[in-house]
Amino acid sequence: MVLLLTEADVLEVLTVKEAIDAVEAALRDHGLGRALSLPRLQLRVGSGLFHLKAGAAFGWVGFKAYSIFPKTERFHCLLFDGATGGLVAVVEADHLGRLRTGAAGAVAAKYLARADAGRVGLFGSGRQAEAQLRALALVRKLNEVRVFSPNPRHRAEFAARMSESLGIPVVPTADAAEAALGADILVTATSSPGPVVRGEWLGPGCHVNVVGATGRLRRELDLEAWARADRIFVDSVDQCRLDSGDLLAATEVGAVAWEAVAELGRVVAGHDPGRRSAAEVTVFRTGGLGLWDVAVAVRVWELAQARGLGREVDL
């Protein structure tokens, strides 16, 4: 029997903390060489895109398949027993995907941002920006967030909603530089084709999470920002060599050497010190790992089983 879990089931059981715990454990196993993740495969089909990500961890194997077409997006995870290869669950994965990406940003900040980091500059006011901020608030004691996005109404509504929800000042700003000024943590969660953060805005000790605008032609940081980073971390070097446009541009002009780029999993596993001083500027660039989708989907399956959720079908 295969358990089918809908988006409603996922929303009922998956919390931000559960997602963070699952992603952190997956990163640790990845850093220890006990988990596997394949770079994303992408197909252009007519007016849309089809993506496939796969991973293996904790005795499970699985993949997330998602299609992005005009006016419609669909996300599904399939989980297989790592011992028998049998299909165990099919999980709708829109909410799951947002929370696992937010969780990855939180884990990066937990290990790479200064312990006293409390001021956040957030670029973007969409659903992923919300997931990033909610997850960050669980790993760092935030005292102020300044949010910039090009739509005044969106950023104002976002700031008001998140201020009330998190109980911290979230202030909208029409000036991108003002959002970055004095920030301990910067987060870019946009779909911008061009840089939204400039290197001249990065102060000593700043940590930057670059989570949006994936694709070879997209940029969220300018070249100076990459050049100013003392240490650069990614989820997967192989993945970023394929489609992290801003990092690829930085390596092409010599601002960054691939040999100096480290994987976050090694930090979580204790094989890399991560941040080496309070003054260092650190950057984490993620394209998203199928391994994380599998890890979080497994946790959803466990929680759903415990609560009797989902529908079993004989395939």
Structural features, described:
The chain has 315 residues and is α/β, with parallel strands linked by helices. It has helices at 7-13, 16-31, 94-112, 127-139, 152-166, 176-180, 223-228, 237-243, 245-252, 264-268, 290-307, and strands spanning 2-5, 36-45, 48-57, 60-69, 72-81, 87-92, 119-123, 144-148, 170-172, 185-188, 207-210, 231-234, 261-263, 282-285, 311-313. The chain is built from eleven helices and 15 strands. The strands form two sheets. It has an eight-stranded parallel beta sheet. It has a seven-stranded mixed beta sheet with strand order 2-3-4-5-6-1-15. A hairpin with a 2-residue loop joins β4 (60-69) and β5 (72-81). The chain is globular.
**Main sheet properties:** 8 strands, parallel
Enumerate the spans where pLDDT stays under 50 for 5 or more consecutive residues: none
- SSE topology string: EHHEEEEEHEHEHEHEEHEHHEHEHE
Tell the overall outline: globular
Mean pLDDT: 95
Let me know the number of strands. Answer: 15
Distance between the termini: 7 Å
Q: Name the beta content range.
A: 25-35%
Helical percent range?
A: 25-40%
Number of helices: 11
